[in-house]
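Appendix B, example 12.
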Amino acid sequence: MLIRHNNAIKGPKYDTNFAISAIRAIRCYNPTYILADKAYDTELIKQTIVEETTALLQIPVKTRQKSGTYRSKCRTIFRPQVYRFRNQVEGVNSVEKRKFRGINNSRSTTLQIKETKLKNVFYNIYRSIQIVQK
């Protein structure tokens, strides 16, 4: 598994702020599924996935689901056996933090963003070399 899209900004922010731009960036790869955890259970994110991609969304519905057309449809198309593959994403995050240190040492925001993107490129190279050796 390779990293296809990354984004970083200054300070702690919610990941959902980047979800729409990430969905639009990865749609050129024609994904079959888009997997995300319950934090991404918003009507806007689900609407973007359905209307702008051909992928099936696999986002579990929060227990206190609010109303919404796309959220209601999610209950019927959610496949737990597909959603189990989300642990591979968490594995990528873990490997990247272990191999390339999970701390950014840069002080300025622009350098922190560059450092994060560079670590993602290094991870992709590292992973590509492993795939070729197998």
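The chain has a mean pLDDT of 82. Residues 15-133 form one domain.
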